[in-house]
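Exercise 3.2. Students should predict the tertiary structure of the chain below and write it as structure tokens, then compare their answer with the key that follows.

Predict this chain's 3D structure.
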Amino acid sequence: MSAGMETRPETAAATRATAPGRGRDSDGSRRARGASSAAMKRAPWVLLFPFLALFLLTFLVPILMALVSSFTQVRRGGLFGETGVVTQFAGFSNYAQVLGDPNFTASIGRMFLFGIVQVPLMLILCTVLALLLESASAKWPGLFRAAYFLPYGVPGVIATILWSFLYVPGLSPIIDVAETFGVSPDFLGPNTVLWSIANIVTWSYTGYNMLIIIAQLKSIPVELYEAAKVDGATPLRVATSIQLPLIRPALLLTAVFSIIGTLQLFAEAQVLQRVAPAIDSQYTPNLSAYTTAFAYNDYNVAAAQSVLIALVAFTLSIVFLTITNRKSA
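Answer key:
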């Protein structure tokens, strides 16, 4: 008992001696945890800062500048602007001028027709290619995927130059062969040049869209194919009952990309303009905005055209997604 009684004061003294140290350690650990928590909260923003800065400078700022510019006009005093240049608010006058231009509205209508024909054909073609390459009986699928994707790696200007050799009379072997049978196709005529451009776009982007669909096909569980095989489903039944319904998100994605790309058509029309008299400087909406800005030096009207093109592309995409989602509901 005495020995036990003697150790209690020593234990209490040791506790009192170590208590302040434990308190300091506890405060230090709390501060360390607080600093670590603050550093963890800052880390994502530090990592995202380069992207956010580039996104702000190369995407948001140009959009805002174009939007502001579309509502302003530049007034020059004097015959050559020697008395000064004044930028003033113009309201919707630039938009009224754009919508009153029959050439610009005709280019929008021309792209509607282009999209109605070209986009469904390209989606059907890339879907068929994707299904064939992902079928169990496909041979050398990697080789054919690379071959179909290769045109996408060719810049639009180069692709248009290459195809122009097949469109221009005197250079095109296709026209030479056709003339031997008494047929004289005019690929660059007023009624056919739009579809010649559609052929170039289809050739360039079918492989790209095909890879998006293939990526979706590879996410389908193997168990579904095995169950279909046990049930005796044919490859056509597997494609229509399993694959096509499950790749619907990829089809919607490629369709939206194609709708937006249709209104952004520029390089093909500009390059073919050199050899096709039917293509004028306002043949497509983007070409019209480019001509207004750099040929007529009217950047405010060109900004209004660009904003309208973006609004039309956004509206068409929303309408398309709304209609397709309503049908699937």
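Discussion points: The first strand starts at residue 72 and ends at 77. Confidence is low (pLDDT under 50) at residues 1-7, 9-19.
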